């Protein structure tokens, strides 16, 4: 993985990436008013502020409205198959620590068809940032109930109302071994969306962000209560978590100082019924990362391969009379 | 996998000098010279018959014999003791010449109880009149039912004309170890070394190797048991055989198919293997796990088969081609991911160690049942390369070839092995490492400004892929239909452009393939066509038939998709053509079956549809490797235009 001289020079010259450098030549085709637009903007702003080289940035997704995001980023993108964004992202990261990896997924993609991968991705705790665009409904397939849909939701598959209580992505994630970063933020407060994304990006390990995302087409007014009544939002603030600017602090008066290392309190907050917790629920930078644990202790070179192969051949070798093992034979 | 416990010799062991004296003259009479023998060692699971068999095979191989071993495996880890279903052990075919398959029926069986012996007799795996050695402790068992069973089976064995020898394994081993259930296997190994006139020094060296990781006391105890077995056989048994050995002229290695696959992964330069445990594929990953980290690489045990495949795709996308190793049910689960790799043109090697199907099927047993699902298992038109390994050695080299094809053509390459090759052992020429086997470093150079991620070459269909990290190469891969810029496109013409180029790559690869030479004459009355692990058995059958004057030849296919050109020309030179496959086909003798509904074996179906030739097929799906004698019977029936008896269908 060597860069040519001219390439290095080019990179040195072009260190000042602008927002436009992360915008692909495709205009986003999400509906007007879709929360995904806000998420894309926050992503591009993060890349600009962190000056991530587009060629070193990889956005991975599954299937669904949210999973179209990589197409709109000028970066490397992998729009995969339904539910499998996380294992693809893990494969990318396992040998490429130099790449910044983002995973964008929806509530159907992550919490339903890809639920197994979600649980194990949290457990692997690889260095990457995951954005769960949770609009509580299947959008791309035209309004079916998702695992996070509220009970009673009338959809095309539940015309008489969804029968089950929704799955809670926050409490599920917080309950998985090796969880290291869990945050929640709505799409309608762009300032906070960016701040949480930035916290997640800087966290060492697997960062899980649940974004409450409005779907104007199929779940119009679903989040209105929280959008219109700031007291329904409980802001979790902390020196190691979210810090509210005065202008936001004036609007969102329902605040709680929450230590992101307090897992028990995080679980309690995740289970809040009437209020929406916003901010960093849990952040622990000391959880071991699978990609670091599995990092090769030495680079794979032809010499090394030859040596190891010969050692293995010697163990099961048969030699003509008089010849001996070449190395380490038994 | 037994090894005898911590105590060394017990008090009744003969003094050292006496044992040394015995070892000097292991054979009491002249040994009968034979060209080959098939030996089976069977016990309850956990009594060590497998280790005994593997050790016997290694000693024979080191002596210069051709060998082929097959494990006899119960499906459960701890099946009931003394049960027919629980027979566990090893079949070793030893010969004066190179051996390429499991062979026919066993010439000599050594059984640790009468129930496991019965299992082999019921399976019709033992030659009439064969020599049978059996542990005799059961005849005085406390439980009268056990003693009765023992008497019943041994009486039956005698009455059927087998040469039965009852061996006091337990009593003899008790002289050396407190718990003979752990240790009998080395006593038995000693017996077999005497019977087959094998070199004591080689046998001792093998025991040391087998227990290399154990305490010296354990090594010594097992050496003692080996010597005891040799001595007991020398004094009490009259059977002696001598298989002439050809001196080893080139360095060899002895591995099973799965170990060879794992070594092939290392030699191919792939750096990531992601897998999910599944029988009979997993032992390849077990072995790879012990060596892959030494070369700076990773075996990732994923949470399921789908993530094993998608993880490998992610790793391939970000650098060098990766591999996922599985078996039939896993291949089914991976199919959508395989389609993604096809569509995005990400190189991927998939190793499928086939087992009996459908569904959970016969997890530990062989079947060549996955050819069609490897070719067509993913929805839509998803062209991929499918190749089949036909020997242990081929397992090693095929992985190297597969990686190269995958990265040259940006394609999925499926390697079909099977349960027969997975545990079978065979010596082959020690590979000499070649740095060209490995993948070049990951390309991180800047992409030219005017290049597109899918700049399909008109002649080959190949596009140079852009790898993350390459400046100017940013694009979004997608499983959706896409244009040369990797932009989502539903335009009919663009969709067909992608289909054409992905398909064209197979044709381009096909132009580079050469058909394997015909085994036997280039023309004749009957051509047998096979693929995969059946090669050795088919060619042995052809050899025997040709020696008797029959005009039979065989052709063995390495590449299933694409298939080398020229098969039609070969087929035309034979009066009849029949595939030999270890999978299901509808028997023509079934009253419901007629030409309008007969379901053929996989390869026969392919050849018929491509060449419009009336290719017949013979095979079975009994979970056992095909045997030369069965193939001869089927081929003779075909020659004589009789309906074959269809090998037990």
TrEMBL record, chain A:
Question: Which example biological process does GO assign this protein?
Answer: small molecule metabolic process
Q: Name all Thiamine pyrophosphate enzyme TPP-binding domain ranges.
A: 63-211
**SUPFAM superfamilies in alphabetical order:** Thiamin diphosphate-binding fold (THDP-binding) (SSF52518)
Q: Tell me, what's a Pfam family for it?
A: TPP_enzyme_C
* Keywords of the record: Oxidoreductase
Q: Where is the Pyruvate ferredoxin oxidoreductase beta subunit C-terminal domain?
A: 250-293
Q: Which GO terms describe its molecular function?
A: oxidoreductase activity, acting on the aldehyde or oxo group of donors, iron-sulfur protein as acceptor; thiamine pyrophosphate binding
Q: What is this protein called?
A: 2-oxoglutarate ferredoxin oxidoreductase subunit beta
Q: Taxonomic lineage of this organism? A: Bacteria, Pseudomonadati, Pseudomonadota, Alphaproteobacteria, Hyphomicrobiales
TrEMBL record, chain B:
| Keywords tagged on the record | Oxidoreductase
Instruction: Pinpoint the Pyruvate flavodoxin/ferredoxin oxidoreductase pyrimidine binding domain residues.
Output: 265-432
The answer on whether this UniProt entry bears the keyword Cell inner membrane reads no
- What spans are recorded as compositionally biased (Polar residues)? 1-11
| Highest taxon listed in the record's lineage | Bacteria
| A biological process from GO | response to oxidative stress
What NCBIfam families does this protein map onto? OAFO_sf (TIGR03710)
- Has keyword Oxidoreductase? yes
Among PANTHER family, the record links this protein to: 2-OXOGLUTARATE OXIDOREDUCTASE SUBUNIT KORA, PYRUVATE-FLAVODOXIN OXIDOREDUCTASE-RELATED
* Name of the protein this chain belongs to: 2-oxoglutarate ferredoxin oxidoreductase subunit alpha
Q: Where is this region: Disordered?
A: 1-29
What Gene Ontology molecular-function terms does this entry list? oxidoreductase activity, acting on the aldehyde or oxo group of donors
Chain ranges of the Pyruvate/ketoisovalerate oxidoreductase catalytic domain = 46-229
Q: Kindly give the Pfam families that the UniProt entry links to this protein.
A: POR, POR_N
